[in-house]
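[09:14] KT: can someone run the structure on this one? pasting the chain below
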Amino acid sequence: MERLQAAIEKARAQRGTSSPKGPDTRKAAPASTPDIQQVWDALAEVRFREDQLHKNRLIAFEGGQESAPYDMLRTKMLQQTKKHGWRRVALVSPHSGCGKSTAAANLAFSLSRQRNLRSLIFDFDLRRAGLTKLLGQSSSSGMAEVLEGEAEFADHALRYGSNIAFGFNNGTKVHTPSEILQSPRTKDILDQIEATYAPDIMLFDMPPLMASDDNFGFLHNVDCALILAAAEKTSMSQIDVAERQITELTNMMGVVLNKCRYTNGVYGNEYDYY
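[09:31] RB: done, structure tokens below
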């Protein structure tokens, strides 16, 4: 713990962000120094059960042709973030069952193969912890505790490989998720995490838009949002409402049409996007 704290303090000092209330460095270029890598290397490493990943259709875990749609989505997402100077991307859906957490997990594995990039993946569905359950993980603390200052992200986060880190939940019921997500403390802690770990991309797996007000109190903290919709389940009116709600709070990146039964034959996978 002492070695980890020393590495974090050194990285913060070099970036001029010794505390979460320091100057806003969100648009600063990501650092690529040995000290930042030491901070990443100090995170506990996570290992996933391959049988569970296959069962949950996390096809981007091994790469190859099956992961091509997610790799293409990853690349288009990175092009958009680079073009606009965005870093924080929220994954949202109009309702539950759109495959949002599955897409977040597959994007994480796809991003892990971009060795020159560092990515942070957060399970911000504090009510359901879909991403955490999907990947078969649990932790002594959840993201709610991190955001409330009761746990350190350095002790909580789990690293996959050298360039991906996850913020999971612990399965404990959170009684005030909306209040936590819209708290000024949440913004301060996210700014601190970003300054310390210098990620190129921060992905947030958010709750369904129509399920609660959790998104509405938080989305102003991200640069953009990507909508996940389910083919033959999500109506166009639901997508229109979701788009209007998002554009009131942040930038709209696009819409992913998930769970397609009919494809154009290029990859034969379960979703398209546009």
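[09:33] KT: thanks! The two ends are 45 Å apart (CA to CA).
[09:34] RB: yep, looked fine to me
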